[in-house]
Amino acid sequence: DRVRCILIIMDSSDNRFFRARRTLCEMLEDRGYIVSSQDKEEDFSTFKERFESHQRLRSRMLMVASHRQDQTKRIICYFADESKKTGVKPIRDIVEKMDEHAIQRAILISQNVLTAHAKVAILDAAPKHYIESFLENELLVNITKHELVPKHILLSDDEKLQLLDRYKIKETQLPRIQYADPVARYFGLAKGQVVKIIRPSETAGRYVTYRLVV
Question: What is the CATH number of domain 13-141?
Fold first, then answer.
């Protein structure tokens, strides 16, 4: 019975890891990155086999993706192995891999909260190494697919300038969205960027607003 319980717990953990990776693939694609068909299309059984072949070490299931519009713009996605508090070691590993591949941006996915030292290490790594961090729990479902979450579209710098010119306003006059907002984090939005938000409207068909990331 004890062995059976351990296997059930392992399977549950594997399922969470699988779901988080799947959401991560969707998130990368929504940010404009190219995701390999192996990563985004593999089923759970194939994923488990690959995980076993990597000695069940999440850190070995590394993902690297290039941006559609600029192949030199790449990102590393790293899953931390620690099942308890995540310390500085994964941050050092990520920075080392970023230097090795000449990549400036990374996403760290941990199973638990980061220690205070780990948070400081992420801050210290910037601006040369920009590391975002997500809890596995935050990626179990794709929040942008929820019916209550409207469509978000990031404006380019030119589109932002055209918007401000069209309405003869300064960016500070736009409504705001916090960069720590869950949807803003999903899209990797940075302070100063403007996002277009489209909501369904019973009268007009759709209702469009713009928000400045602060």
Answer: 3.40.1340.10
pLDDT digits (tens, 9 = 90+) for 75-133: 999 999 999 899 999 999 999 999 999 999 999 999 999 999 999 999 999 999 999 99
Residue 133 bridge partners (DSSP): 108
The count of C-alpha atoms lying within 13 angstroms of the C-alpha of 127, restricted to the half-sphere facing its C-beta, is: 0
User: Order of strands, edge to edge, in the sheet holding 74-79?
Assistant: 33-34, 63-67, 74-79, 105-110, 130-135
- The angle, 0 to 180 degrees and rounded to 10, between the axes of the packed helices 89-101 and 116-125 is 20
The label of the residue with tokens 């705001």 reads 176
Determine the average pLDDT of the residues in 35-49.
94
What CATH number does the domain located at 144-213 have?
3.90.940.20
DSSP characters over 174-210: S-EE-TTSHHHHHHT--TT-EEEEEEEETTTEEEEEE
Helix (H) or strand (E) holding 213: strand 205-213
CA 44, 49, 50, 52 dihedral sign is positive
By the 8 A CB rule, do 181 and 201 touch?
A: no
Q: Per-domain residue ranges for the chain?
A: 13-141, 144-213
Q: What is the pLDDT of residue 205?
A: 85
Locate 199 and state its tokens.
């909501």
Q: Residue 204 — pLDDT band, cuts 50, 70, 90?
A: confident
**The model's pTM:** 0.90
